[in-house]
Amino acid sequence: MKLGFLGPKGTFSYQACSEYDKTKDFIEYRTIKEAIYALRNNEVEETIVPIENSLQGGVTETIDALIECDDIYIKKEIILKINHNLIANKQYSFDQIKEVYSHPQALAQCRNYIEKNLKNATINQVSSTALAAKEIKEKDYSACIANKNCVSEYGLTLLDENIQDNNFNQTKFWVLNKKQNEEGNKMSIIFSTKNNPGALYKILGIFYENNINLSKIESRPAKTVLGDYIFLVDIEVNDKIIEVINILQNECKYLKILGKY
Amino acid sequence: MKLGFLGPKGTFSYQACSEYDKTKDFIEYRTIKEAIYALRNNEVEETIVPIENSLQGGVTETIDALIECDDIYIKKEIILKINHNLIANKQYSFDQIKEVYSHPQALAQCRNYIEKNLKNATINQVSSTALAAKEIKEKDYSACIANKNCVSEYGLTLLDENIQDNNFNQTKFWVLNKKQNEEGNKMSIIFSTKNNPGALYKILGIFYENNINLSKIESRPAKTVLGDYIFLVDIEVNDKIIEVINILQNECKYLKILGKY
User: Fold this and answer.
1) Peptide bond preceding B8: is omega within 30 degrees of 0, i.e. cis?
2) Residue B205: enclosing H or E segment and its boundaries?
3) In the CATH hierarchy, which top-level class contains the domain A2-82+169-177?
4) Which CATH class is domain A85-161?
5) What is the CA radius of gyration of chain B?
6) Where do the domains of chain A lie?
7) pTM above 0.80?
8) Fold match flag (A2-82+169-177 vs A186-260)
9) Chain B residues close to A60, C-beta within 8 Å
């Protein structure tokens, strides 16, 4: 069975694949969007994508691709503790490093560390932490920020470990598939509100009055004008859920159910 | 009078400075955080920073720096229509371009265009669109995504214009200073909720019951554990506002008033 992920080997998504199910056939994709579209187009049966980091918030590329694709549901969530490491092709001092490569989220998670220690370095964004490791293999005076397993995977040198600005650094991944789960205590929903005063308040009221707890709420711009939003919420399911979804279908301008898990 | 902005010349922040007040002495900073800290440390009297884009949502670096710094208030908001352009040091075809440089938000705003047209290019993040233009000046087969005024500012060639994925592309900037404005119909507030069911619902209820309309709500992770959030809201001020703020002071775990404008 094929499982898509944001490659190459050595990414945090790859680590999430290993923790999820080592027996599956892992298929690499260059971007999160491509990994989700591969599921939509039946190239893989499941795909693993990061959805939220405790420091940076929602992974916008994942949320946007989920809005674009229908009939994709959550099967399971996997939470990883994220430790970032400074890695190069040989030993260097901070002052010698002229370039730093990593994924934008990893760069953001080490922003203070970079500002303090790597003052001489230009910052280069690449599409995954492991690609950054591949990139600096042949580049002297360059470093990457990546998962420690890239040191052995690509034959590199560890310069510094646990360099993230904040130790409450966790990333939540979703295993996605095309079948809506009927079991599970949690459910995720994407919705947008009608454009009238108190619209979000009224929708949160529907959950509150039915004793449905929100464990997460996140806003994304609706990509129309400033001030229009799409909300992603995680809720704790109870026996009123079907009734609540029926009410939401009337109250929301847009509603997508990502299923129970 | 000194006005800080995200430099160098040619950024959208620079354009916002010119539209705000051409008579001020514009002072360049390398990052948004440095521009805000310059105000905190009295190096400048005012600073201009991007706060929200209609496609990408909140500018997390701005929101995080505002949470870190006390006694910084909004003086004015400025909204710019954002047009991105593909620019190089001479004429190239899409296939010839091996590297693309830009600010992460600009790269994200042109994500579909890059995927479709610049298949051979690696993507490099730099700290501003204008820095990207400076970067590619001496680099053959490289392009940047930047404001059109960089073509004349740095003597470059325009390859393609208006390349953003979506034409509802606006960025809102805030002029920040250290004095709390007493006038204005709008107010921005940052708060976090106590950790109990319906906490956000109850806070939105305080606004709703006092006829205070929310024109924006945005969530940011509180940087502690997954599921803890800080909210940034824009409200329309009425004569109940002082009373409402007093109630919020009791109901919120954390509250910061960014002032009227």
Assistant:
1) yes
2) helix B199-209
3) alpha beta
4) alpha beta
5) 20
6) 2-82+169-177, 85-161, 186-260
7) no
8) no
9) 56-57, 108
For chain B, positions 136-175, list CB contacts with chain A under 8 A. Answer: 166, 168, 170, 172
Tokens of A115: 């500002």
CATH fold of A186-260: Alpha-Beta Plaits (3.30.70)
- The pLDDT of residue B83 is 92
Which among B56, B201, B214 has the least Cβ separation from residue A208?
B201
Euclidean distance between CA atoms A145 and B28, whole angstroms: 28
Is B224 within 8 Å of chain A by CB?
yes
CA distance linking residue B235 with residue B6, whole number of Å: 27
Q: What is the ipTM of this complex?
A: 0.72
Q: In 3D, which of A141, A102, A88 has the Cα closest to residue B125?
A: A102
Say whether A104 and B125 touch across the interface (CB within 8 A). Answer: yes
Classified as helix, coil or strand, A110 is coil
Whether residue B122 and residue A126 make contact (CB cut-off 8 A), yes or no, is yes
Residue B175 binned pLDDT confidence (cut-offs 50, 70, 90): very high
A131 touches chain B (CB under 8 A): no
Residue B205: exposure state from Cβ atoms within 10 A (0-12, 13-18, ≥19): middle
